[in-house]
Amino acid sequence: MPNTSDDEETNLGTPLSDDLGLLIPTSIVMLIIMAMHPIGVFTTIALAFILFGSYFSLTVPLVILKVISLYAVLTAINPCLLVISTFFLGLLLIVLLFYLFF
Fold it and tell me: Membrane-spanning regions, if any (predicted)?
């Protein structure tokens, strides 16, 4: 009979799998409906994971990317507006980072 104690159980759900569980389907919808280029979409997601992971030394929930991608899909905005909004959001986060920590 296997041991079912709580200390030996492993949780297969990680923040990375939670983020990818929503980002991958919304990214595919963005590629199909909004006709965005797949290299740009997936490179942005990968860079966000790499930069946040290297700075915080753990995976960071990418709620901002999820909100922007879902808003873009629901309103069917122009892909150029999506790129501009994420660029300015990134600048805002950089300014807040320097303002809070330096």
Answer: 20-39, 45-68, 80-101
* Residue 30 structure tokens: 């963005």
Cα-Cα end-to-end distance for the chain:
57
Which amino acid would we find at residue 22?
L
Furthest CA-CA distance within the chain: 59
- Continuous segment of H or E residues that includes residue 40: helix 38-56
* 51/46 Cα distance (integer angstroms): 9
Task: Provide the residue-wise pLDDT of the chain in tens; the chain has 102 residues.
Answer: 555 555 445 555 566 666 677 777 877 888 888 888 888 878 877 887 787 778 777 666 667 777 777 888 888 888 888 878 878 887 887 888 788 777
**For the chain, domain boundaries:** 15-101
